[in-house]
Amino acid sequence: MKNNNILLIGFMGVGKGTIGRALVKNSTYFAIDTDDLIESIENKRIKKIFEEEGEAYFRALEKKCAFWCEKNLHNTIISTGGGFYKQENIKNIGTIVYLQSSFEKIIEALENAPDSKKKFKKRPLLKDLEVAKKIYETRVQEYGKVADIIVNVEDWNIKRIVSEILIQIK
Ligand code: S3P
Which ligand 1 atom is nearest residue 139's CA? Predict the structure, then answer.
């Protein structure tokens, strides 16, 4: 059975954390981020985990995190890492909201952010934009397939995005 959580999925940098925090301000939900949980149990940044332990180790932590979320979370907005949508139990965790944007718009927004350098640096899979584009292309269909709700976020109008999610979730 599905828990009453909201999962935000989508590509790196699409704004899952930002939208999660905005949703908290407009509802009775609380919010967490799977990457933050993983960093906390490892006491290490994601970038360091990738460098020192490798991607497979990180994916195993995501899996552990997904099972913990299913068992323990209710009434929670869960912002997920861009690859978390692959978890086999994701549908049991909650309603899945896919934040959709073209690759170009995501990169443009990251490049124009005041802390742009930091945003790129912390994401090992954004190091090479050609590789990142390929990852985007394979994932874009899969995000759509796993989602219960799809919200286009290209205009970065947080107020509109939040109200659209809250209306659709009812
Ligand atoms: C990843 C996305 C990252 C983080 C890790 C891997 C991915 O999270 O989980 O670097 O595979 O797309 P964000 O989507 O928050 O950048």
Answer: 12
